[in-house]
Structures are given as C-alpha cells and as structure tokens.
Amino acid sequence: MRRTPSFLLFLTIASVLAPAVALAQINPTPEPTSRATVTGARSGSGRGFGLGAVAFYQPETGTVSNTVPNLLLTWGNAGGQFHLEGLFGLYHKNGTDFDLAARGWYHVHATSSADFSLGAGLGFTRRRNDPTVTTAQWDFEMELGAQVRAFIVSNVALLGSLGLGLYIPDTGPTVVNISGNLTGTVGLAYYFQ
User: Fold this and answer.
1) Averaged over 9-32, what is the pLDDT?
2) Could you give the C-alpha distances from 51 to 85, 92, 189, in angstroms and in order?
3) Does residue 146 carry a pLDDT above 90?
4) In sequence order, what are the beta bridge partners of 120?
5) Least buried of 126, 145, 186, 193, by fewest C-beta within 10 Å?
6) Top CATH class, 48-191
C-alpha cells in the first residue's frame, strides 16, 4: 500500500514537468516580452508634407526682415533622415518682387519632439530697386547653416535656422559684387501626417 502514494506522487510530478520540458526542447531560448527602441537621427517619423511661414532674420541689425514672411512647403522622408524645404515670398516694393528658394536639411540628431539639422540652400530674388528702371534684377544667394525644429505637438513645429550666406546681386555685366553675411530664419510649420 505504500507503493501507491509514491507512484501517484511520481505521476503528478511527471505530468507537471513534462510539458515544460517539451516546450523547452521546441523553443530553447524564450522570446523577451518587451523590446527597447532607440530613436536617433536616422529613425523616427519623417513628418511627411507640411505648410508654414518663415520670416528672415537679420542678426547684424537684430530685426526681422521688412518683407512679408515666405510661404514654406516642407517634406520629410519616411525614415526621418532628412527634410526638404521650398520657400516662396511675394511682395510689392517699387514693383512686384518675389523670392524663390530651396533648402535641404540632414538630421544630425533627433528625438521624438525635436531635431537638429545641418544643410544648404539656394535662392533667387527678383527685385526692382529703382521704379524708373523697367528691367528687374535677379539676385542669387547660397547658404550653409543649421536648423532646429521643436515640435510643440506631434504635427506643429517651431523652426529656427542660422547660417552663413553668400549673396551675389545682379549689378550688371561689368560689376561683380559678392558679399557674405549671417542669415537666419524663424518660422512655424504644420505637418499633415
């Protein structure tokens, strides 16, 4: 009679342990229940297409440009490595003038609510300095700089950039006047993600 309780005890232990041993043989390394994710400059949300406004800042005078803010069209790739911007400004000063520019920014560092980028841009300005002259001047500008985008909510960003610009005005065929100066922009963008 003593053999029956020992046998039942052995059978109970075997029935409890057998499924665990079989599962360990099928899947010897169990999967972790959670995984850590890291968001860097090359990952995260690219924010997609966005619209906004940008005003040009003049650090040497400490004032925002006297022209109206430029329309900003922006797009970021899905991986979040970079974003592109197109700028268009239309204003009236001795005639109808406009700005047209494109800039590209590579994200050096990024978090879920901000990014820091380095980039370059090219721009053209059509302007008339003298109302008596019928032909307009076409000025050219190149820029190297840095930009910070701070997302106040997931799809609205405050923008600020600072850089060095090379300005080549249209002064006629005989005079070449190239100047370098600090350039800056402040703006706001809404992203349709």
Assistant:
1) 56
2) 10, 23, 5
3) yes
4) 104, 144
5) 193
6) mainly beta
